[in-house]
What does this fold into?
Amino acid sequence: MLASRLSLALALALLGGCVQPPPRRTAAHAPRAVEKKDYDRELPPGAHALRRITDPAQLPDFTAAFGRDRAALRRAVDRSLAYLGKPSSRRFYPVGGIEHEQVVAGLVAFRALLDSDHDAAALAAEVRRRFAVYTTVGCDDRGTVLFTGYYTPIFEASRRRGGEFRHPLHRLPPDHVKDPITGATLGRRRADGTVDRSYPDRAALLAAGALDGLELVWLRDPFEAYVAGVQGSAFLRLEDGTRLEVGYAGNNGHEYASIGAALVRDGKLRKDQLNLRSMIAHFRAHPADFERYAAENRRYVFFQESSGGPYGCLNERVEAMASIATDKAIFPRGALCLVDADLPGEGGRGTERVRAFVLDQDAGGAIRAPGRCDVYMGVGEDAGARAGRTLSEGRLYYLVLDEPGTVPASFGR
It folds into this structure.
């Protein structure tokens, strides 16, 4: 981005690797040995990402979490329930040993707690008494999770090509075919109605002019357009000062590959230099490099005008500091969670220990393991500053009601 800072999660996605947080210091400020961790370690075959906590002494303190913005949390709960009320949501359950009905029951009960007039201590006691709490196994089978941040950028754009605005975001082609439930790309529909599953990659689509006439908007910088595709959404400031929201409409079915990893591989940047500013500076100094490296990422994302977003992978709006992105192959969609980690303060200044209830409502291309979690920070500059400074080990917990029969099994059918 030219005017925004990239989220660290996106930087990791562009790099395609993992990072090692700086070692903490002891009270005497002496260096302490830190075990090197692979935060992207995948689960062994057949293993669950969640483990129920049976020792009450191992439960986190929920009191401080009830002192945060309850209105935003209530909105996020309602959006998870809206998603889980759709019959298609059952397709992704059970997961991690947790059933669809358990997640719904927990959200209904938790919403009632939020609507009550009890103080934080009483609410925390109710959670401890009524909810089953699961911890993620993390990257090391001891619950360690690397927390990063992401946000929605604001870019300058135009509805017409001209002058500085020469780099398009494209609409979904009319022959695009996707799975009606999962949204996965199936291919392109031929004239005879059959589906051609050999979808062209990014370079082939653009070189052949296959997307001509499908331009939705034009951006100033090719790398901004690329970043919008990695994020899957963007807020755009048009020339007349109005704001346009664009969101993910689909992709060409190819796997994502990291442009940052390619720059490091070829010695264009050192790994410790890799961030948005350095990549922008490189492509400004060497504009001929951009398309060559962008072509290594065979995936291409299509956009549509949207409103009321930004939206997560549940097709529900995500809420700043109340929505997270995890690996949806191993964690329950829409579930109630508790984050316990050091996160940046307003404007990205300093950090504070945060214990906050959140909803698992999004996914990310770089989030593919039980040791990773991405916290949504919001829209614009301040959110970008916070996202760019988010890099902390912590713990992630999932909560479901431990009372059978609270929600009928017919919910959402």
Confidence is low (pLDDT under 50) at residues 1-8, 15-34. The first strand starts at residue 50 and ends at 52.
